[in-house]
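Work Package 3 (structural annotation) set out to generate three-dimensional models for the target panel prioritized at the project kickoff. During this period the team completed the workflow that converts sequence records into discrete structure tokens, so that structures can be stored uniformly alongside our sequence database. As a representative example, we reproduce one entry of 426 residues exactly as it appears in the project archive.
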Amino acid sequence: MALKINPDDTVACVNRARNHLKNNEITKVHPLIRRLKEIDSRPSHIPGLSPLSAAHNTIALAYNKLGLSCAALKHYDAALRVDPLNSDCYLGKGEVLVRMSKHQGRANALKTLNEGVSCVKKYIAEFNVLNLAKGKDPRESPLPRDNKAVNNVYAVILLARALNERSRRLEKEYAQEALEYLDLVLTHSEGSVYALYQVGDERRLMDNFDGEESALNLLKRAIDIRESSLLYHSYALAILKSERLKYEERFRAVSNMTSTTSQNGANDQDHAMDAALEQVAKLLKHALKLSPVGSTEISLDLAEIYCSLNRKSEAESMFNNILESSNPVDRELAYRKFGRFLIKIGNFPRGDEMIEEAIKLRLHASHDEVAMKQLEETVTILAEHFKNENATREKFWLDQLIQINPSLADDHPTRNGPKSSRQRGK
């Protein structure tokens, strides 16, 4: 009601925006963001509670939830310039920086991670997080974080995530430290659903499926306490990763057998993998059913499982639903993955259209090294496909290839255009 009485009331704007974020009503936050941007700074007598700083923090939360990391980072910095004591901003900024590092080269990633760790440690020091409070309720999203008990748990998880990312960047000595922080959360949270989910999900990313407190076990314990879309999604991905690791082990074993035995073994492991994919699809469908407003992330994962199972119509239906999203990040991802699937099954005309749409939205996306390599390979396939059919489309995709990987322009041109990084490695 305060907004109707005084549209310039900063606190009312912030509270209304936070309520929309809690309910995952992202589109309703946009007009409030525009209004908050127009409000001038007002003095605050309470350190850490500046209305303008809170406004920028809320804008950052909205951009963060949309996956627009650069925009979120800009407003976290603006909030901290207005009020350096707004400690919640350090947690949010740390989260964005850790996420951004996954899409950077090694040198830049380590620099970004160091800044992210510094931000998270400031928050941890401010609230003495070593004395972790209990986080009792599962959250469909860590944003917004109004509950300090949940904030404290998440801060330690985020620190472990940053250390885990350092380990992934070939600094292996950080992995054990990350696991120690995760164990700290479990020790102090006394088996809360939120902690079980967060620790289980992080261990899933660390490929840690062994031992009593494995990712699968932790996530199953959380589901047994309370059903949640978020929990089923993470549990499905943990099963998928575990089964793929088993598949790789079986493949290595089969490759050492005789030809006849090897063929039979290969068929058996294919059937086992298909059965695992069917199980994952059921879990993801249940997760989607439990989600109150649907989930693009779950939908994309389910669409990819349908692709792996060659269930074309179901995959196409899932992708088409995502393409109606108002979020350009979601649409870029859907166009790119749908395009790859169409090209894989030989539907080049539609695949060509989908990948071009993804290229148009590329500025909104943050691609990690794997995604960039996949995009480069997809564009290379398109360029080669149109080589003898359509010179205009061939040139278009060759130009896109150089934009994706500028180092290709340094190669000596061949009759077929620049080589992809995959070709150069041969």
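The chain has 20 helices and no strands.
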